[in-house]
Design goal:
alpha/beta, ten-stranded mixed beta sheet, nine-stranded mixed beta sheet, 21 helices, 21 strands, 33% helix, elongated
């Protein structure tokens, strides 16, 4: 799927040719290998394509890249980076500086990088087509297709051992039985294989060593590289595969023809050496991406929002009719590891006191919106906050594209089907439909991925009937949030808005040192609507001070929610309402101790909080 990379985009003059083949046969004798640090030597022994890459990199001019088995955030300030890290072996990434641009280069190093693999691929594809006529299996999932393809590749190739002579293999090959597979898979494969059936007289077999019975002779590293390339292109997402596998990438953007652009968790904005230079190839790639996401795209429906198999969100805009620079797409990567609330405290996104305050509010049935602009980290923070929902709760989540992750065992995850807007038509199941259904499931908490349309009225109706709701929302302040809620297309009656108790405003802000960080700017309590003035009253319980980078508990001693909602629900007498502030301090200390004890994993933290609650340590005494 999508084989085209921009040729000649390696951002350096390749080093003079070395005898790479000899180095691969005897790594210990390679002069470049002996110069590598210990961790790099371990990598190149296991992954020969990495050594091939280093042979073309001009180490005499730029030095040997630094090698990292694992990246740490403290290297984000490194100037003129020249480093290689393991994304997900066998995939490595070279971050290489560009002195003429604010964006540095992102160079994926894959097994298919091996110089002799590309020359073998056309012959491999011809032989794959030759086996298609006898297919009788119908693999449907990506995993099943991978298994069948690997089996086919075993029939097509012979792995030459180091002690075997090539001439002997050509003369003494053994017959190999053919295996047959199914017609549906034939169609699946021929979508990408453009070669027609042919014999070994085809020009693609020129200089390709073939055994007497027709198997292509390869070395073990070549076999692994070819298998990687075929699975990557025929089953997975093609040239995007290394980017999807890199957990340090947050966003991938293809603006049209040209390179991909990357938002990296540590190195921020980067430009890749991978991209497209042909409209036809880019259009085909976008069509196949949409098919992988099961949301077909056409000239009549040129815009698609979907989810890739790994859970990443993708938006595709197809053809030059609506995109002047050609088809484009943006991918927001799914997170492999859910960030815990203690990690957010460590990052400075929030602090223990603010978390403790939110914990008490959520535990006592308050409804909350996590609001902010795009890519401000709203969903990440909301996922982390779900840890504070009582562990015995039943939770129903409703989303267009699945991003909410919850540790609770009693969790029903609903995803819309179709356009996801308005009331469903035909086979569509919209957010509105799912939200109405959720009200019949007796949930203790309803989580809506994002409120942006008519489902907002159902969500606020749920709040009125006593169902707490959590959701993300696109607004950069409480005032703008209220304007959007009460305006078209959401149209919440103004008298309903105060059913929403809590609004956290989160943003990506630039610090004085030039770094961009995510901060919860404010945590505000919505108090009510004044029909006489037509205004809403709300107060900030917490405020982020941009100068000191500290979250201040501005509502301490005067919190409307703690004193008039939580304390009243718990039956705390008027003269003892100060105990709720003591509870905030107590829970802040609990979170801090759990953090210091090493509870930074999302699921481990949830289990420990559940244990703390079971032991009765979260009871409010008065």
């Amino acid at each position: 799927m999508g084989k085209l990379q921009i040729e000649g985009m390696i951002p350096f003059q390749e080093a003079e040719s070395h005898d790479v083949g000899e180095c691969l046969l005897n790594v210990e004798s390679c002069a470049l290998y002996r110069m590598l640090p210990a961790n790099a030597k371990e990598f190149v022994q296991k992954f020969p394509h990495l050594l091939e890459y280093l042979h073309i990199f001009p180490v005499d001019e730029f030095g040997i890249p630094l090698f990292f088995s694992e990246l740490k955030r403290d290297i984000k300030g490194i100037k003129d980076p020249n480093l290689i890290y393991a994304a997900k072996p066998p995939i490595f990434v070279h971050i290489f500086f560009d002195p003429n641009d604010v964006r540095n280069f992102y160079i994926p190093i894959e097994p298919s990088f091996m110089h002799n693999v590309k020359s073998f691929l056309p012959a491999i594809e011809v032989k794959l087509v030759d086996l298609l006529d006898s297919l009788d299996e119908d693999p449907e999932t990506a995993e099943q297709r991978s298994i069948v393809l690997k089996r086919l590749l075993q029939e097509i190739m012979y792995v030459r051992q180091p002690h075997e002579k090539l001439s002997d293999l050509i003369a003494q090959a053994e017959d190999v039985k053919n295996t047959s597979f199914g017609d549906k898979f034939k169609t699946f494969l021929t979508t990408d294989l453009t070669k027609e059936k042919s014999s070994e007289t085809d020009p693609v077999f020129a200089n390709i060593p073939v055994t007497k019975d027709g198997k292509i002779i390869v070395t073990q590293p070549m076999y692994e590289a070819i298998e990687y390339q075929i699975i990557r292109d025929k089953v997975d997402v093609g040239v995007l595969f290394p980017f999807i596998q890199d957990n340090f990438i947050e966003d991938i953007t293809c603006d049209g023809l040209g390179p991909f652009f990357i938002e990296h968790k540590i190195f921020k904005g980067l430009k890749s050496v991978v991209g497209f230079n042909s409209d036809d190839m880019l259009d085909d790639f976008c069509i196949k991406l949409a098919e992988r996401a099961r949301r077909p795209i056409t000239a009549r429906t040129p815009i698609v929002d979907a989810t890739l198999p790994d859970g990443s969100r993708i938006n595709i805009v197809y053809s030059r009719d609506v995109s002047r620079r050609g088809s484009n797409f943006t991918i927001r990567k799914a997170m492999d590891d859910v960030i815990s609330i203690t990690k957010l405290c460590e990052f400075g996104t929030t602090n223990y006191a603010m978390c403790a305050y939110v914990w008490i509010c959520i535990e006592n049935g308050m409804s909350m919106f996590m609001s902010g602009e795009t890519a401000s980290g709203k969903t990440t923070s909301m996922n982390a906050i779900t840890t504070f929902i009582p562990p015995d709760s039943k939770i129903v989540s409703i989303e267009d594209t699945p991003e909410v992750i919850i540790a609770h065992p009693n969790w029903t995850q609903e995803v819309s089907k179709g356009k996801g807007k308005g009331e469903g038509e035909g086979g569509d199941v919209t957010m509105f439909d799912l939200l109405r259904a959720a009200l019949r499931q007796r949930p203790n908490m309803i989580i809506v991925g994002e409120i942006r349309g008519v489902e907002g009225s159902v969500a606020f109706g749920a709040m009125q009937t006593g169902h707490p709701v959590m959701s993300t929302f696109h607004a950069s302040s409480v005032e703008k949030l209220i304007q959007r809620l009460t305006g078209d297309p959401i149209l919440i009656p103004k008298t309903f808005v105060d059913n929403l108790n809590l609004v956290i405003i989160q943003s990506a802000v630039r610090r004085p040192d030039g770094s961009t960080v995510r901060r919860q700017l404010a945590c505000s309590e919505l108090i009510g609507y004044d029909p006489d003035s037509g205004g809403f009253s709300f107060v900030e319980a917490f405020h982020w001070d941009a100068v000191t980078d500290v979250h201040e508990f501005t509502g301490k001693g005067s919190s409307f929610l703690l004193e008039n909602k939580v304390a009243t629900m718990l039956g705390i007498p008027e003269h003892k309402k100060a105990v709720v502030y003591m509870e905030v301090e107590k829970r802040a200390k609990i979170l801090e101790r759990l953090h210091k004890a090493g509870y930074v994993d999302f699921y481990d933290l949830f289990k420990m909080i559940a244990k703390v609650k079971a032991q009765g340590l979260l009871e409010i005494e008065f």
